[in-house]
Write a structure and sequence with these properties.
NAD(P)-bd_dom_sf, alpha/beta, about 425 residues, ten-stranded mixed sheet, 16 strands
Length: about 425
Protein backbone atom coordinates (compact mmCIF):
# COMPACT_ATOMS: atom_id res chain seq x y z
CA UNK A 1 0.00 0.00 0.00
CA UNK A 2 1.30 3.44 -0.85
CA UNK A 3 2.26 5.64 2.09
CA UNK A 4 -0.01 8.25 0.52
CA UNK A 5 -3.70 7.43 0.71
CA UNK A 6 -6.03 9.42 -1.49
CA UNK A 7 -9.36 10.64 -0.16
CA UNK A 8 -11.45 8.10 -2.08
CA UNK A 9 -9.41 5.14 -0.75
CA UNK A 10 -9.49 6.59 2.75
CA UNK A 11 -13.26 6.83 2.73
CA UNK A 12 -13.50 3.23 1.54
CA UNK A 13 -11.27 2.05 4.40
CA UNK A 14 -13.12 4.17 6.96
CA UNK A 15 -16.33 2.58 5.75
CA UNK A 16 -14.86 -0.86 6.44
CA UNK A 17 -14.03 0.36 9.92
CA UNK A 18 -17.66 1.26 10.46
CA UNK A 19 -18.58 -2.31 9.50
CA UNK A 20 -16.37 -3.74 12.20
CA UNK A 21 -12.93 -4.10 10.62
CA UNK A 22 -10.31 -2.51 12.84
CA UNK A 23 -8.21 0.08 11.02
CA UNK A 24 -5.00 1.02 12.74
CA UNK A 25 -3.41 4.45 12.29
CA UNK A 26 -0.15 2.80 11.20
CA UNK A 27 -1.88 1.54 8.05
CA UNK A 28 -2.23 5.06 6.74
CA UNK A 29 1.41 6.02 6.86
CA UNK A 30 1.90 9.71 6.20
CA UNK A 31 -1.23 11.26 4.73
CA UNK A 32 -0.89 13.62 1.81
CA UNK A 33 -1.49 17.26 2.73
CA UNK A 34 -4.66 17.36 0.64
CA UNK A 35 -6.12 14.44 2.62
CA UNK A 36 -5.42 15.74 6.09
CA UNK A 37 -8.20 16.82 8.41
CA UNK A 38 -7.61 20.42 9.42
CA UNK A 39 -8.44 20.76 13.12
CA UNK A 40 -8.56 23.62 15.63
CA UNK A 41 -8.52 23.16 19.41
CA UNK A 42 -10.79 25.41 21.49
CA UNK A 43 -9.91 25.52 25.19
CA UNK A 44 -6.28 24.52 25.75
CA UNK A 45 -5.96 24.04 29.49
CA UNK A 46 -5.17 20.60 30.92
CA UNK A 47 -7.61 18.52 28.86
CA UNK A 48 -7.16 20.77 25.85
CA UNK A 49 -3.46 19.96 25.90
CA UNK A 50 -4.38 16.28 25.86
CA UNK A 51 -6.54 16.95 22.79
CA UNK A 52 -3.64 18.67 21.11
CA UNK A 53 -1.22 15.81 21.83
CA UNK A 54 -3.65 13.07 20.79
CA UNK A 55 -4.56 14.65 17.47
CA UNK A 56 -0.99 15.78 16.75
CA UNK A 57 0.00 12.10 16.78
CA UNK A 58 -2.43 11.21 13.99
CA UNK A 59 -0.72 11.44 10.57
CA UNK A 60 -3.87 12.45 8.69
CA UNK A 61 -4.57 15.42 11.02
CA UNK A 62 -3.17 18.91 10.65
CA UNK A 63 -3.59 21.23 13.63
CA UNK A 64 -4.03 24.74 12.25
CA UNK A 65 -5.37 26.83 15.15
CA UNK A 66 -5.55 27.09 18.93
CA UNK A 67 -7.97 29.16 21.01
CA UNK A 68 -8.22 30.09 24.67
CA UNK A 69 -9.46 33.05 26.71
CA UNK A 70 -6.30 32.79 28.82
CA UNK A 71 -3.24 34.11 26.99
CA UNK A 72 -0.94 32.08 29.25
CA UNK A 73 -2.64 28.81 28.32
CA UNK A 74 -2.56 29.79 24.67
CA UNK A 75 1.14 30.65 24.62
CA UNK A 76 2.20 27.58 26.59
CA UNK A 77 0.22 25.22 24.36
CA UNK A 78 1.55 26.80 21.17
CA UNK A 79 5.10 26.34 22.47
CA UNK A 80 4.42 22.67 23.28
CA UNK A 81 2.91 22.05 19.85
CA UNK A 82 5.85 23.70 18.09
CA UNK A 83 8.23 21.47 20.06
CA UNK A 84 6.24 18.39 19.03
CA UNK A 85 5.92 19.49 15.40
CA UNK A 86 8.95 21.60 14.44
CA UNK A 87 8.12 24.00 11.64
CA UNK A 88 4.38 23.89 12.22
CA UNK A 89 2.43 27.06 11.52
CA UNK A 90 -0.51 27.46 13.87
CA UNK A 91 -2.74 30.49 14.41
CA UNK A 92 -3.91 31.53 17.87
CA UNK A 93 -7.16 33.20 18.91
CA UNK A 94 -8.83 34.49 22.06
CA UNK A 95 -12.32 34.27 20.52
CA UNK A 96 -13.51 30.89 19.20
CA UNK A 97 -15.85 32.62 16.74
CA UNK A 98 -12.84 33.60 14.61
CA UNK A 99 -12.12 29.88 14.18
CA UNK A 100 -15.71 29.13 13.18
CA UNK A 101 -15.48 31.89 10.55
CA UNK A 102 -12.64 30.10 8.77
CA UNK A 103 -13.75 28.01 5.80
CA UNK A 104 -10.47 26.06 5.71
CA UNK A 105 -11.03 24.36 9.10
CA UNK A 106 -12.82 21.00 8.94
CA UNK A 107 -13.33 20.19 12.61
CA UNK A 108 -12.83 21.49 16.12
CA UNK A 109 -12.24 19.98 19.52
CA UNK A 110 -13.81 21.58 22.59
CA UNK A 111 -12.21 21.36 26.03
CA UNK A 112 -13.70 24.46 27.62
CA UNK A 113 -15.54 24.43 30.97
CA UNK A 114 -18.87 22.58 30.76
CA UNK A 115 -21.08 25.66 30.49
CA UNK A 116 -19.59 26.49 27.07
CA UNK A 117 -19.77 23.00 25.51
CA UNK A 118 -23.21 23.18 23.89
CA UNK A 119 -23.05 26.72 22.51
CA UNK A 120 -19.67 26.22 20.86
CA UNK A 121 -20.64 22.85 19.39
CA UNK A 122 -23.97 24.16 18.08
CA UNK A 123 -22.35 27.21 16.47
CA UNK A 124 -19.72 24.91 14.97
CA UNK A 125 -22.42 22.71 13.42
CA UNK A 126 -24.02 25.80 11.93
CA UNK A 127 -20.64 26.83 10.53
CA UNK A 128 -20.16 23.45 8.86
CA UNK A 129 -17.61 22.06 11.33
CA UNK A 130 -17.51 18.60 12.87
CA UNK A 131 -16.93 18.45 16.62
CA UNK A 132 -14.99 16.35 19.10
CA UNK A 133 -16.42 17.67 22.39
CA UNK A 134 -15.32 16.99 25.93
CA UNK A 135 -17.61 15.43 28.47
CA UNK A 136 -20.01 16.11 30.00
CA UNK A 137 -21.93 16.66 26.80
CA UNK A 138 -23.69 19.82 27.95
CA UNK A 139 -24.41 21.99 30.97
CA UNK A 140 -28.13 21.17 31.05
CA UNK A 141 -30.56 18.68 29.53
CA UNK A 142 -32.16 20.98 26.95
CA UNK A 143 -28.75 21.98 25.57
CA UNK A 144 -28.11 18.37 24.54
CA UNK A 145 -31.40 18.37 22.64
CA UNK A 146 -30.39 21.62 20.93
CA UNK A 147 -27.04 20.14 19.93
CA UNK A 148 -28.64 17.05 18.40
CA UNK A 149 -31.13 19.13 16.43
CA UNK A 150 -28.46 21.34 14.87
CA UNK A 151 -26.03 18.48 14.24
CA UNK A 152 -28.66 16.57 12.28
CA UNK A 153 -29.90 19.68 10.45
CA UNK A 154 -26.37 20.51 9.28
CA UNK A 155 -25.27 16.90 8.62
CA UNK A 156 -22.34 17.10 11.01
CA UNK A 157 -20.30 14.52 12.95
CA UNK A 158 -19.85 14.55 16.73
CA UNK A 159 -17.81 12.44 19.13
CA UNK A 160 -17.94 12.95 22.91
CA UNK A 161 -14.54 12.81 24.56
CA UNK A 162 -15.16 9.97 27.01
CA UNK A 163 -11.94 8.32 25.88
CA UNK A 164 -12.37 5.20 28.02
CA UNK A 165 -15.24 4.21 25.72
CA UNK A 166 -12.58 3.04 23.26
CA UNK A 167 -10.86 0.71 25.74
CA UNK A 168 -10.80 -3.05 25.22
CA UNK A 169 -12.01 -3.76 28.76
CA UNK A 170 -15.29 -1.89 28.25
CA UNK A 171 -15.80 -3.61 24.91
CA UNK A 172 -15.30 -7.01 26.53
CA UNK A 173 -17.66 -6.23 29.42
CA UNK A 174 -20.32 -5.26 26.88
CA UNK A 175 -19.88 -8.57 25.04
CA UNK A 176 -20.17 -10.59 28.24
CA UNK A 177 -23.27 -8.74 29.46
CA UNK A 178 -24.97 -8.92 26.06
CA UNK A 179 -24.21 -12.65 25.76
CA UNK A 180 -26.52 -13.32 28.71
CA UNK A 181 -23.73 -15.00 30.69
CA UNK A 182 -24.88 -13.37 33.96
CA UNK A 183 -28.53 -13.43 32.91
CA UNK A 184 -30.93 -10.53 32.98
CA UNK A 185 -29.35 -7.55 34.73
CA UNK A 186 -31.83 -6.08 37.20
CA UNK A 187 -29.53 -3.86 39.30
CA UNK A 188 -26.40 -1.84 38.59
CA UNK A 189 -24.30 -0.10 41.22
CA UNK A 190 -21.96 2.71 40.17
CA UNK A 191 -19.58 4.57 42.40
CA UNK A 192 -16.81 7.14 42.41
CA UNK A 193 -14.94 7.74 45.63
CA UNK A 194 -14.49 11.45 46.33
CA UNK A 195 -11.01 12.95 46.09
CA UNK A 196 -11.97 16.62 46.28
CA UNK A 197 -10.92 19.06 48.97
CA UNK A 198 -12.67 22.10 50.38
CA UNK A 199 -11.90 25.32 48.52
CA UNK A 200 -12.46 27.45 51.61
CA UNK A 201 -13.92 30.96 51.38
CA UNK A 202 -11.63 32.94 49.03
CA UNK A 203 -12.33 36.54 48.14
CA UNK A 204 -12.73 38.52 44.95
CA UNK A 205 -9.44 39.28 43.18
CA UNK A 206 -8.45 41.54 40.27
CA UNK A 207 -8.85 39.78 36.93
CA UNK A 208 -5.42 38.84 35.51
CA UNK A 209 -4.50 40.92 32.47
CA UNK A 210 -3.98 37.70 30.52
CA UNK A 211 -7.54 36.43 31.12
CA UNK A 212 -10.77 37.49 29.40
CA UNK A 213 -12.99 36.78 32.40
CA UNK A 214 -16.22 37.99 30.81
CA UNK A 215 -15.77 35.61 27.92
CA UNK A 216 -14.70 32.79 30.26
CA UNK A 217 -18.08 33.23 31.97
CA UNK A 218 -19.85 33.48 28.62
CA UNK A 219 -23.43 32.19 28.96
CA UNK A 220 -23.12 31.69 32.74
CA UNK A 221 -24.35 34.34 35.22
CA UNK A 222 -21.93 37.19 35.81
CA UNK A 223 -19.85 37.09 38.97
CA UNK A 224 -16.72 38.89 40.11
CA UNK A 225 -13.46 37.04 39.53
CA UNK A 226 -12.39 34.54 42.18
CA UNK A 227 -9.48 32.32 41.04
CA UNK A 228 -11.04 29.20 42.54
CA UNK A 229 -14.04 29.57 40.21
CA UNK A 230 -11.82 29.51 37.14
CA UNK A 231 -9.87 26.84 35.28
CA UNK A 232 -9.73 23.36 36.84
CA UNK A 233 -11.75 24.00 39.99
CA UNK A 234 -14.65 25.52 38.05
CA UNK A 235 -16.29 22.09 38.18
CA UNK A 236 -17.17 22.53 41.87
CA UNK A 237 -19.63 25.32 41.09
CA UNK A 238 -23.16 24.63 39.85
CA UNK A 239 -23.11 27.67 37.55
CA UNK A 240 -20.49 25.87 35.44
CA UNK A 241 -20.65 22.13 36.17
CA UNK A 242 -21.77 19.53 38.72
CA UNK A 243 -18.77 18.44 40.75
CA UNK A 244 -17.14 15.01 40.62
CA UNK A 245 -20.50 13.47 39.77
CA UNK A 246 -20.74 15.42 36.50
CA UNK A 247 -17.05 14.80 35.87
CA UNK A 248 -17.18 11.01 36.17
CA UNK A 249 -20.78 9.89 35.53
CA UNK A 250 -20.31 9.46 31.79
CA UNK A 251 -17.07 7.51 32.23
CA UNK A 252 -18.44 4.66 34.30
CA UNK A 253 -22.13 4.84 33.30
CA UNK A 254 -20.88 4.54 29.72
CA UNK A 255 -20.29 0.80 30.08
CA UNK A 256 -23.86 0.39 31.37
CA UNK A 257 -25.38 2.27 28.44
CA UNK A 258 -23.25 0.35 25.97
CA UNK A 259 -24.17 -3.00 27.51
CA UNK A 260 -27.87 -2.73 28.37
CA UNK A 261 -29.21 0.57 26.99
CA UNK A 262 -31.40 1.54 29.99
CA UNK A 263 -34.85 2.73 28.92
CA UNK A 264 -37.93 4.22 30.54
CA UNK A 265 -36.41 6.28 33.37
CA UNK A 266 -39.17 6.95 35.93
CA UNK A 267 -37.78 8.03 39.30
CA UNK A 268 -34.72 9.98 40.45
CA UNK A 269 -33.88 10.47 44.11
CA UNK A 270 -30.61 12.18 45.09
CA UNK A 271 -29.03 12.92 48.48
CA UNK A 272 -25.69 14.51 49.10
CA UNK A 273 -23.31 16.40 51.33
CA UNK A 274 -22.54 20.05 50.55
CA UNK A 275 -19.16 21.73 50.83
CA UNK A 276 -18.64 24.05 53.79
CA UNK A 277 -16.82 26.73 51.78
CA UNK A 278 -17.44 28.58 48.54
CA UNK A 279 -18.09 25.55 46.33
CA UNK A 280 -21.76 24.63 45.84
CA UNK A 281 -21.65 21.46 43.71
CA UNK A 282 -22.26 18.30 45.78
CA UNK A 283 -19.23 17.11 47.72
CA UNK A 284 -20.75 13.64 48.00
CA UNK A 285 -23.75 12.32 46.13
CA UNK A 286 -25.97 9.24 46.14
CA UNK A 287 -28.64 8.91 43.44
CA UNK A 288 -31.27 6.18 43.01
CA UNK A 289 -32.61 5.70 39.47
CA UNK A 290 -35.59 3.55 38.53
CA UNK A 291 -35.88 2.47 34.89
CA UNK A 292 -38.15 -0.07 33.21
CA UNK A 293 -36.97 -3.37 34.70
CA UNK A 294 -33.74 -1.89 36.02
CA UNK A 295 -32.45 0.01 39.04
CA UNK A 296 -29.21 1.98 38.98
CA UNK A 297 -27.61 3.29 42.15
CA UNK A 298 -24.84 5.90 42.11
CA UNK A 299 -22.88 6.32 45.36
CA UNK A 300 -19.81 8.17 46.52
CA UNK A 301 -18.78 5.35 48.84
CA UNK A 302 -18.23 1.91 47.26
CA UNK A 303 -21.08 -0.61 47.75
CA UNK A 304 -20.72 -3.40 50.29
CA UNK A 305 -19.36 -5.86 47.74
CA UNK A 306 -16.05 -7.75 48.08
CA UNK A 307 -13.31 -5.86 46.24
CA UNK A 308 -15.33 -2.71 45.58
CA UNK A 309 -13.55 -0.64 48.24
CA UNK A 310 -10.25 -1.16 46.42
CA UNK A 311 -11.65 0.45 43.27
CA UNK A 312 -11.86 4.24 43.22
CA UNK A 313 -14.49 4.00 40.51
CA UNK A 314 -16.53 1.03 39.39
CA UNK A 315 -19.66 -0.65 38.07
CA UNK A 316 -21.32 -3.76 39.49
CA UNK A 317 -23.85 -5.59 37.32
CA UNK A 318 -26.22 -7.87 39.25
CA UNK A 319 -27.94 -10.45 37.03
CA UNK A 320 -30.21 -13.40 37.76
CA UNK A 321 -27.41 -15.84 36.81
CA UNK A 322 -24.35 -14.04 38.15
CA UNK A 323 -22.54 -10.76 38.66
CA UNK A 324 -19.84 -8.71 36.96
CA UNK A 325 -17.77 -5.94 38.54
CA UNK A 326 -15.49 -3.71 36.50
CA UNK A 327 -13.57 -0.48 36.37
CA UNK A 328 -11.76 1.07 33.44
CA UNK A 329 -9.19 -1.72 33.11
CA UNK A 330 -10.34 -4.76 35.10
CA UNK A 331 -13.35 -7.05 35.44
CA UNK A 332 -14.39 -9.82 37.79
CA UNK A 333 -17.23 -12.22 36.97
CA UNK A 334 -18.96 -14.49 39.46
CA UNK A 335 -21.24 -17.29 38.30
CA UNK A 336 -22.40 -20.12 40.60
CA UNK A 337 -19.75 -19.21 43.15
CA UNK A 338 -16.91 -19.37 40.62
CA UNK A 339 -14.90 -16.19 40.05
CA UNK A 340 -13.19 -15.47 36.73
CA UNK A 341 -11.91 -12.55 34.67
CA UNK A 342 -13.24 -13.73 31.32
CA UNK A 343 -15.53 -16.30 29.71
CA UNK A 344 -13.78 -18.01 26.81
CA UNK A 345 -17.03 -19.24 25.27
CA UNK A 346 -18.31 -15.67 24.78
CA UNK A 347 -17.18 -14.67 21.28
CA UNK A 348 -15.68 -11.34 20.30
CA UNK A 349 -18.58 -9.62 18.56
CA UNK A 350 -18.05 -5.96 19.45
CA UNK A 351 -15.73 -4.24 16.92
CA UNK A 352 -12.65 -2.87 18.66
CA UNK A 353 -11.87 0.82 18.42
CA UNK A 354 -8.88 2.09 16.44
CA UNK A 355 -8.59 4.71 19.20
CA UNK A 356 -11.12 7.30 20.31
CA UNK A 357 -9.62 10.19 18.35
CA UNK A 358 -8.90 7.99 15.31
CA UNK A 359 -12.52 6.83 15.43
CA UNK A 360 -13.58 10.48 15.16
CA UNK A 361 -11.25 11.14 12.22
CA UNK A 362 -12.46 8.00 10.43
CA UNK A 363 -16.07 9.05 11.01
CA UNK A 364 -15.51 12.56 9.69
CA UNK A 365 -13.96 11.26 6.49
CA UNK A 366 -16.54 8.51 5.98
CA UNK A 367 -19.47 10.78 7.08
CA UNK A 368 -20.71 8.16 9.54
CA UNK A 369 -21.28 8.78 13.23
CA UNK A 370 -18.54 7.48 15.61
CA UNK A 371 -18.99 5.20 18.62
CA UNK A 372 -19.66 7.86 21.26
CA UNK A 373 -21.92 9.84 18.95
CA UNK A 374 -24.19 12.67 20.03
CA UNK A 375 -27.45 10.71 20.17
CA UNK A 376 -25.79 8.08 22.35
CA UNK A 377 -23.99 10.66 24.49
CA UNK A 378 -27.22 12.57 25.09
CA UNK A 379 -29.04 9.46 26.37
CA UNK A 380 -26.07 8.73 28.61
CA UNK A 381 -25.93 12.29 29.97
CA UNK A 382 -29.61 12.92 30.76
CA UNK A 383 -29.64 10.94 34.07
CA UNK A 384 -26.65 12.99 35.25
CA UNK A 385 -28.56 16.24 34.71
CA UNK A 386 -31.64 14.86 36.45
CA UNK A 387 -29.64 13.61 39.41
CA UNK A 388 -28.24 17.10 39.97
CA UNK A 389 -31.72 18.62 39.78
CA UNK A 390 -32.98 16.17 42.41
CA UNK A 391 -29.99 17.10 44.60
CA UNK A 392 -30.68 20.83 44.21
CA UNK A 393 -34.38 20.46 45.04
CA UNK A 394 -33.76 17.88 47.79
CA UNK A 395 -36.58 15.59 46.74
CA UNK A 396 -37.50 12.58 44.64
CA UNK A 397 -38.60 13.43 41.11
CA UNK A 398 -40.83 11.62 38.63
CA UNK A 399 -39.73 11.68 34.99
CA UNK A 400 -41.64 11.14 31.75
CA UNK A 401 -38.98 9.70 29.44
CA UNK A 402 -41.10 10.06 26.29
CA UNK A 403 -41.82 13.75 26.83
CA UNK A 404 -38.49 14.43 28.54
CA UNK A 405 -40.22 16.37 31.30
CA UNK A 406 -40.75 15.99 35.02
CA UNK A 407 -44.28 15.02 35.95
CA UNK A 408 -46.25 17.80 37.64
CA UNK A 409 -43.19 19.74 38.79
CA UNK A 410 -42.72 23.22 37.30
CA UNK A 411 -39.77 24.00 39.55
CA UNK A 412 -37.86 20.91 38.39
CA UNK A 413 -38.75 21.46 34.73
CA UNK A 414 -37.40 24.99 34.93
CA UNK A 415 -33.98 23.56 35.82
CA UNK A 416 -33.84 21.52 32.60
CA UNK A 417 -32.55 24.63 30.84
CA UNK A 418 -30.87 27.92 31.59
CA UNK A 419 -31.20 31.14 29.64
CA UNK A 420 -27.75 32.48 28.78
CA UNK A 421 -26.69 36.00 29.63
CA UNK A 422 -28.16 38.23 26.93
CA UNK A 423 -24.83 39.29 25.46
CA UNK A 424 -23.68 35.65 25.27
CA UNK A 425 -26.86 34.07 23.91
CA UNK A 426 -25.17 33.23 20.63
CA UNK A 427 -27.24 30.37 19.24
Amino acid sequence: MSVHTNRRDFVKMAGLGALGFTILPSLYGKAAASDRLRIAHIGVGGMGNNHMKWFADLPEVEIVALCDVDELHLGETKTKLEAMKPGIKVDTYGDFRRILDRKDIDAITVATPDHWHAQIATLAFQAGKDVYGEKPLSYCQREGKMMLKHMEKNNRIFQMGNQIHAGDNFHRVVEIIKSGAIGNVHTVRLWKQSTTKELGSPTVQPVPKTLNWDMWLGPAPFTEYIPEKCHFTYRYFLDYSGGEFADFWCHIADVVYSAIQPKGLKKINARGQAYTGIADAPKTLDVDYEFDGLKIFWTTLPPNIPGAAEQGIGAFFDGDKGTLMCDYNTRKININGETMTDIATVPITNPRSPGHQQNFVDAVKARTQPESNLAYARDLTIPMHLGLISYRLKRELTWNADKEKFVGDKEANKLLSRKPRKEWDLV
